[in-house]
Structure formats: C-alpha cells, structure tokens
Design goal:
The chain has 382 residues and is of the alpha/beta class. The protein is 43% helix and 13% strand. The chain has an eight-stranded parallel barrel, surrounded by eight helices. A two-stranded antiparallel sheet has the order 1-12. A two-stranded antiparallel ribbon has the order 2-3. Helix 1 packs antiparallel against helix 16 (334-366), helix 5 runs parallel beside helix 16 (334-366) and helix 13 (260-268) packs across helix 14.
Length: 382
C-alpha cells in the first residue's frame, strides 16, 4: 500500500499499521479496557442524518470559522497529542507545517517531542498548548511562562487524566516512552527496519518541555499510565484550574468536559472554550461519545462559551454534523496521527487535503455557503 492509495482516514490507518512496529501502532490505535468508547466516538456520527437543500447556488462557499479568536480555514482543529516523533521522525514539525499550509489550529502536548520555543518560532498559525497539571509546581510555572514567551494563542488544560485509563494493548506490548527494546518486543521493531533506523540514528528522543524538571519524561523509559499516575496532580480542582487560567492570562480551554454540570461551571467561570472529549476513549471506557453528549451541553451553555467536539472524527461530514448540532468546531488526534505515522508531513498534508475536500463538497451538497448556515434544522437524529 502506498500513500497515493490513501483516500480516507481509515486508509491512512492501514498504511500506518504496515509501517509501524506493533507496540507503537497499538499505542496510537488502542484505547481503554474493551475500547467500547473509542468505537462509539465514531459510530455516534452515524446516528445523525444531514438534510440537504438544493438549488442553492454553491459555486463559491466559505469553509472558515473563528476558534478562540483566530480564524481557521476549516471548522476543524488538530487536537494535541503526545510523543509524535515516536510515530515518525518528523513528529510535531510535520503536523505544524501541514496545519499552517491549510490554515488550521494545531496543538502540542506537554509531552511533545519538540519544544514550545521551536514550535512558536516556526509558525504563525494559531497554536494551542495542551497543559498537563503536574505535581511539580515549578514545572507548571515554567510551561506557562514558556508558552507566553513563544506567543501561543491558547492553553487547554486536560481535565480527564487524574488517573490513567487501563490501556490493555500497551500493557501487553510493554510500550514505554521512550520505546524500550525488550526480548518480547525486539522482533516487532526488527521487522520494521525503516522505522527502527530513523528512531536510532536521527535526533535523540526527548520531551523538551519537561526535561529540566522530570527525568522520567525523557531518557528514562516509563509507561504513559505510570507517568500519569505518578507525575500528575490528583488534587486538581476548579480552584486550581481558575488560578491556572489567571496565571496564563490568555485564551483558555478545558479539554475533557463531558457533563452538563461541568460545562455550566466552566461557562460561569468565564472560561473561553470547552473541548467535549473522552480522551479518544483512552480514559473511562463506557463513557459517552462527545457527539452524543453535544446537544445537551449546547442546550445548557450554547452561546456562552465556545464548544469544540473532540474525538472520533474520520470524515468531513463528521465536522459538519458537529456544527449542525451546535459546536463551534470539531477536533481530533488520530485523524492526523495515522497519516503522520504513515508518511510524515506528506501524509498529514494529504489527510488534511482529503478532509478539506470532504468538508467543501459536503457543504455544497447540503446547499450551504458558509458554516454559520450549519444549523440544527439541517440535522435529524435516528
């Protein structure tokens, strides 16, 4: 299978599976427990139908929207994800360059493999930093100050990782950050020599946003579950989130909100946006899909706070359905991670081009000239 054979996100998934050692692929692809919630995240979109208008004169349409004060060419945000240079040696650099080419928001994680400063210097595209709240208060202060100096546009505090979900595929494979070559996993890495050579001989793996504070995050191999359970602050509460927002002083979102009560509290606090998210099904298995939960959150706080529907997006029509249901935009991680793993920057650009075409074509077929015409009357629930 070649990159030119990829015509949708599932195709990129298959190509990534061919090119990655199985422990690395399973880290991207896997989720918590029985992986029910991961599957629901995408399946939820099939329970809603788009209702098109015709004879609408759609030779010219505008797919852009405003997210957190910055214009985006599409109603789509590339949700921040960790460890990207493990999946392809170009890592976050490839994703950021592709996002800038397509005029999209992109994000990097606290567990990014490229520094805040480098990302800030390499792009003028809108940038989001995914903040993991650590026990080390000095590390927390450092990340805020570095994002301020690098002129990031927003911070999203991840609120659904108080403890790590049980990612059974990672437990079976022994996946760690950085990858640890063991007798059990050696064959899987040896069978993918291109990946192995890139990993061994290119830039040394590091987590530069943590390395001045957290040795477990860089040279010492640790499971993601182990990292979450030992390094992140389980006392995190609304007061601490509000203080972080004030210390940052810019656009601020909460990533991982799922309940109406939490959405209301975020809106009452004056937080700029919430990302309705279950962490890609990687935390609480059996929880609802963001798209299923979207309507009742929109009913409760729509118009008071920006709402980003995060997770399960595999098609342009998924983003359109999210907007019809009241979201400001949709977002996802695997939608570009599969493409990154498959072919680096070329893969991400091809994936974004496909999604751009699907969004534009979908709007034309719906008789919609701009995203503000994606209203609830254009959606029916099964």
């Amino acid at each position: 299978m070649r990159l030119s054979d990829c015509h949708n996100i599932d195709d990129f998934r298959l190509l990534a599976k061919q090119r990655l050692p199985w422990p690395v692929f399973d880290y991207i692809d896997g989720a918590a427990d029985d992986e029910l919630t991961k599957a629901r995240n995408t399946q939820a979109y099939a329970r809603a139908d788009l209702v098109p208008d015709v004879l609408a004169g759609v030779s010219e349409i505008d797919t852009s929207c405003t997210i957190l004060g910055r214009k985006s060419a599409l109603p789509l945000l590339l949700s921040p994800t960790a460890l990207q240079r493990v999946f392809h040696w170009q890592g976050e650099r490839a994703v950021v360059r592709a996002a800038e080419k397509y005029g999209l928001w992109c994000g990097i994680s606290s567990l990014a493999t490229v520094s805040i400063e480098e990302i800030g210097a390499m792009t003028t595209a809108p940038k989001l930093f995914q903040f993991y709240y650590h026990k080390d208060r000095g590390l927390n202060r450092s990340m805020i100050e570095r994002c301020q100096a690098a002129k990031f546009d927003a911070i999203a505090l991840t609120v659904d990782t108080i403890v790590a979900g049980k990612r059974e595929r990672c437990a079976r494979s022994g996946f760690t950050s950085p990858p640890r070559f063991t007798a059990a996993s050696a064959l899987s890495y040896a069978m993918k020599p291109r990946w192995a050579l890139d990993y061994v001989f290119r830039e040394k793996f590091a987590l530069p946003n943590l390395d001045s504070h957290v040795r477990e995050g860089t040279g010492e191999a640790v499971s993601i579950a182990g990292y979450f359970n030992t390094m992140l602050d389980q006392t995190l509460d609304w007061t601490m989130a509000e203080q972080l927002r004030d210390d940052w002083g810019g656009k601020f979102a909460l990533k991982g909100v799922m309940s109406v009560a939490d959405a209301r509290r975020a809106a009452d606090m004056g937080i700029d946006a919430i990302m309705i998210s279950n962490h890609g099904g990687r935390q609480l298995d059996g929880s609802r899909a963001p798209f299923d939960q979207l309507p009742e959150i929109v009913d409760a706080v729509g118009g008071r706070i920006e709402i980003i529907c995060d997770g399960g997006v595999r098609r342009g029509t998924h983003a359109l359905k999210s907007l019809c249901a009241g979201a400001t935009a949709a977002s996802g991680g695997r939608l570009y991670l599969y493409a990154l793993a498959a072919a680096g920057q070329d893969g991400v650009e091809r994936a974004l081009g496909i999604l751009q075409d699907e969004i534009k074509r979908g709007m034309q077929l719906m008789g919609v000239k701009s995203v503000d015409q994606l209203t609830p009357d254009r959606l029916r629930w099964r």
